[in-house]
Design goal:
Blueprint: H1 7-15, H2 21-34, E1 41-44, H3 46-61, E2 72-76, H4 103-110, E3 114-119, H5 153-160, E4 166-171, H6 177-183, E5 186-189, E6 209-214, H7 217-227, E7 256-260, H8 261-264, H9 271-286, E8 290-294, H10 299-317, H11 336-347, H12 350-363, H13 368-392, E9 395-399, H14 415-419, H15 426-431, E10 435-442, E11 448-454, H16 460-473
Parallel strand pairs: 2-3, 2-4, 7-8, 7-9
Antiparallel strand pairs: 1-3, 4-6, 5-6, 5-10, 9-11, 10-11
Helix pairs in contact: 2-3, 7-16, 10-12, 10-13
Length: 475
């Protein structure tokens, strides 16, 4: 069977009788089996997906199928799905079966998407390489000696290696966009609150966003349109009307595009990534768009602000995992105190424990004002300065990460080096604006390069339109 890049291609072949949903699912199941070494999936819903495919085939024949009929989707292991296990890549949730379905997942099911399995991720979405999972690391299909990015590495590799058409991930500081760049596919992080977080296992609640991995802008737009909108189960979901993102329009008049000078003129950036960005900016200028280099004096504070606030929120969110109500419980405890300590010490991995400790420290009475309160004030300043920037520009263009996919184990002994992989992607999460990573080609080693575009709040429509234009004409 041929490789499909869009739902439209699949729908056309189903309509023509070339394939059925069952045959499509069988094709993806075979690809998953043949590429088990990449470790992208932690559980595959083989029988369930086939039965679901049969149901959708019947609906199609009766003319009653939804908009996503024929779309096979994988779920990052942080999204709840009724009657299915979910572990957030952690031993602490061993054996937990979700009693409910995430709103985003349910909205896909309502449109006849087929869920094929749950995908490997960094433990509790904390990581930039997908090496901290209790299920072991995910390998990049472009080069299995390299990481796929994180934390949604399994979801990215599943789309990259044709194990499903699309995946849902979560993006707290770049965890959709960075693996999308490392794997050469499209990753979208929407405006905070655009998609309900109900049913998403929390890492840092004021940063977390559900995002998508696809091989086409059209599919990303359709998924975003279907999942977006107010949800009574999530008080942080936005009531802002949802545009018809899937009805892609032509690029409007010429755009004004900014790039932050320090994100290009930086020795830490791989030369081939810098060259790609500069070529893209030159192409845009040659095609009549206005390009402006700007200084963003708060740039050096974005990453520290992000890690202070996200670790604080993680410390609070992960306090619920104590071995009493669900998940892993130590077998060696002689008191309630011991039960808590041993369960959490044994159940959580090293990176999660590191961030819980950091978060507990910044929230402690002696340091709360010095770190947490100050970081919240800086976050507000970053938001205001970014908003001012969008008052004069349509988009910010930047690298997604300083390098292409790095070697497995290269940064595991140096947490600070690992955290720097997020240096260009965290701004969108600190501020709450949407961002997208689109592939631009490969470097001299054959490793994918991605470019990041960010836009103002709830401007996903323009962002997707511009991204499609850029991908179609510039690359």
């Amino acid at each position: 069977m041929k490789r499909y890049n869009t739902l439209q291609e699949i729908s056309s072949d189903i309509k023509s009788g070339i394939i059925t949903c069952r045959q499509l699912v069988e094709y993806y199941l075979l690809n998953i089996e043949n590429q088990k070494h990449l470790n992208a999936f932690v559980e595959v819903y083989t029988n369930e997906a086939l039965l679901r495919a049969d149901e959708i085939d019947t609906k199609i024949s009766e003319g009653k199928a939804g908009r996503l009929a024929g779309m096979v989707v994988g779920l990052k292991d942080v999204l709840c799905y009724t009657g299915h296990r979910v572990q957030a890549g952690s031993n602490i949730l061993e054996g937990f079966v979700s009693p409910y379905t995430a709103t985003a997942v349910q909205r896909l099911l309502d449109e006849d998407a087929i869920i094929i399995g749950r995908q490997n991720c960094d433990e509790f979405a904390m990581g930039s390489s997908n090496e901290s999972s209790a299920f072991g690391p995910v390998l990049n299909a472009a080069d299995p000696t390299r990481v796929p990015g994180g934390s949604s590495g399994g979801s990215a590799v599943a789309v990259q290696a044709d194990m499903c058409l699309a995946s849902l991930g979560s993006d707290t500081g770049g965890s959709v966009r960075q693996p999308a760049a490392f794997c050469g596919i499209i990753g979208v992080k929407p405006t905070y609150g655009r998609i309900s977080r109900y049913g998403l296992i929390a890492y840092a609640s004021s940063f977390d966003c559900i995002g998508t991995f696809t091989r086409s802008i059209e599919d990303a737009a359709l998924l975003l349109e279907i999942m977006s909108g107010k949800d009574e189960w999530d008080s942080t979901s936005s009531q802002t009307p949802v545009n018809a993102y899937s009805q892609q329009k032509e690029t409007r008049q010429k755009y004004k595009i900014a790039y932050i000078r320090e994100t290009i003129e930086n020795d830490a950036i791989a030369p081939e990534i810098r060259e790609t960005i500069l070529k893209t900016l030159s192409w845009l200028k040659d095609n009549g768009h206005e390009i402006e280099a700007i200084d963003f004096p708060l740039l050096e504070y974005i990453l520290p602000t992000y890690y202070i606030l996200t670790t604080a929120e993680a410390s609070s969110n992960l306090s619920r995992f104590d071995g009493v109500r669900y998940g892993y419980r130590t077998k060696d405890a002689d008191s309630l105190d011991n039960l808590y300590k041993k369960t959490r010490s044994e159940g959580f991995g090293e990176e999660v424990k590191r961030r819980i400790l950091l978060g507990t420290f910044v929230l402690s009475a002696n340091y709360y004002d010095a770190y947490y309160t100050k970081a919240q004030r800086v976050r507000r300043l970053i938001q205001e300065k970014t908003k001012e920037l969008f008052a004069e520009h349509d988009f910010i263009l930047s690298p997604v990460a300083p390098t292409t996919a790095f070697k497995l184990g290269e940064n595991t002994s140096d947490p600070l080096e690992m955290y720097l992989a997020d240096i260009f992607s965290v701004q969108a999460n600190v501020v709450g604006i949407p961002g997208i990573s689109i592939p631009t080609g490969v470097d001299s080693q054959g490793l994918p390069i991605g470019i990041q575009i960010m836009s103002d709040f709830f401007e996903e429509d323009e962002l997707l339109t511009f991204a499609k234009y850029l991908q179609k004409d510039a690359f």
